[in-house]
Write a structure and sequence with these properties.
This protein is an all-alpha fold. The chain has 2 domains: 1-70, Serine Threonine Protein Phosphatase 5, Tetratricopeptide repeat, CATH 1.25.40.10; 72-169, Alpha Horseshoe (Serine Threonine Protein Phosphatase 5, Tetratricopeptide repeat), CATH 1.25.40.10. It has 8 helices and no strands. The protein has helices spanning 6-18, 22-35, 40-52, 56-69, 74-86, 90-103, 108-120, 124-168. Helix 1 packs antiparallel against helix 2, helix 5 packs antiparallel against helix 6 (90-103) and helix 7 (108-120) runs antiparallel to helix 8 (124-168). 33% of the residues are buried.
Length: 169
């Protein structure tokens, strides 16, 4: 495995993450980061693995590092907010969720986390607003998915029509 580059280590680390083998994931993602210290996706992914294993200080450190490298990385703010919420620091968590949705207005997971936090903090109207946004994004994503599949289906039908015409000759 010594010949693997950062992307190879990252891919292997994410495979372990998907199987909930977080310790192995952390090791492989660390190797990816060692190979490319500015690989923000690997840094945030390792932070997520640390978060899954309740290593909150290490998770926080990775999310802070990713934000230092790329201050516009919405996912890093969202995940850092989850760390703050887990620690009971709801106001800091809310600030990170807000920043994530500012940076990426279509980031549904950040709206979901913020809605849950607003509900926990008895901010019912704000929670409802985020839930409405989640529903809107879900409908919009479904519409996009349907349109893409309809385009595919239309192309598929054209191919079938063409083949039918050719077979009739």
């Amino acid at each position: 495995m010594e010949n693997k580059n950062a992307k190879d280590f990252f891919a292997a680390g994410m495979g372990e993450f998907a199987l909930s083998r977080f310790d192995k994931s952390i090791d492989l993602l660390t190797r990816a980061i060692e190979a490319d210290p500015s690989y923000t996706l690997a840094i945030v992914s390792r932070g997520a693995a640390f978060l899954k294993t309740d290593m909150l200080d290490r998770a926080q450190s990775d999310f802070d590092r990713a934000i230092t490298i790329n201050p516009d990385y919405a996912r890093a703010y969202h995940l850092r907010g989850l760390v703050s919420e887990k620690r009971g620091d709801n106001h800091t968590a809310l600030a990170d969720f807000n920043r994530a949705t500012e940076l990426d207005p279509e980031y549904g997971a950040a709206y979901y986390s913020r809605a849950a936090l607003h509900a926990k903090m008895a901010n019912t109207e704000k929670a409802q607003g985020d839930i409405e946004m989640i529903a809107h994004l879900g409908c919009r994503n479904m519409e996009t998915f349907m349109n893409e599949n309809n385009v595919w289906q239309t192309q598929h039908m054209r191919v079938e029509d063409y083949l039918e015409t050719e077979l009739e000759r």
